[in-house]
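Ticket #361: bound-state structure for pyridoxal-5'-phosphate.
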Amino acid sequence: MKRVYNFSAGPSMLPEAVLRRAADEMLDYQGSGQSVMEMSHRSKVYEGIINSAESLLREVMNIPDNYKVLFLQGGASSQFAMVPMNLMTKSNKADFVITGQWATKAYKEAARYGTANIVASSKDQTFNYIPELDPSTFTKDADYFHICLNNTIYGTKFTQLPETGDVPLVADISSCILSEPIDVSKFGILYAGAQKNMGPAGLTVVIIREDLVGNAMDITPTMFNYQTHVDNGSMFNTPPCYSIYMCMLVLDWIKNTMGGLDEMKKYNEKKAAILYDYLDSSKMFRGTVVAKDRSLMNIPFVTDSEDLNAKFVKEAAANDFVNLKGHRSVGGMRASIYNAMPMEGVEKLVAFMKKFEEENA
Ligand SMILES: Cc1ncc(COP(=O)(O)O)c(C=O)c1O
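RESOLUTION: The complex was predicted; output attached.
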């Protein structure tokens, strides 16, 4: 059996211990005589899985009791519409910080339902920094304020949250959920697709403050109304059963193997520093992001030559470092090093980069 180091932005690596446990439980989940993929979502045994996934998420993320946890489908992309449909109902206005493609998509979708206002953008520098925010420019009576906390494509992250006062802060945390602790109480809604740090694609997690549920626009489809899913414990329809089960295993791994999110953060900081330190010292490769806004999860880098970039990506893949090509909109390289990327994966990548630099100097 061969396992590669997969630097994909998502879907991405899962912890090997989780995959092994899933394999062990594949044919007969805990004496039920069936795989989790085959069982009714209404069965007692599956109820145990979804309840355990929720309680582990609450424990690991320290989610306050006045927040609901929803296991939905449709990806983070569905939240770009679901958030305005449920929240943009009082002043019909919302504020956006444009830090990349995903933030732009959230903005464009909201603009279909109300007044979407851009308070700041880093488009002028191909989104390689997080713009300074001036609270006096925020819309005082906005129904929400949206940010993308970690920008997967450009490799930036917010290190300071905007001061939005009573306006609910909504964040897309698809590419940083579970990578470090987050103070959930500072947010109205947090949402994330699972396929980076939580499990396989197909599951979208929404964490929503209770008072934000129940105000949806009349036009909101039943499936897009948070109330529907709150009322039915994420079981209004068939949930993404297997992805929720895998998420439960990943959460168990974070809690019991990695030691929780404080430890996960230390591990991720150490791991990212190995690559950033090398990029800062290399004469061939350099990171593209302003140092203070660097992501722990997604690290874009370039050489000065397109040919050299292409050669590097090709040779890296031949050496089992796969998916290092940058996003099609920016080019260059990007190493996504989510929770499940082991320290040795980054150490070996850097050793390979050093060798490549020597050979191609
Ligand atoms: C920050 C961010 N938001 C949203 C998305 C879109 O997620 P989905 O494919 O789950 O709709 C992605 C996907 O990579 C992402 O990185």
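RESOLUTION NOTES: The chain is about 35% helix and 15% strand.
TICKET STATUS: resolved
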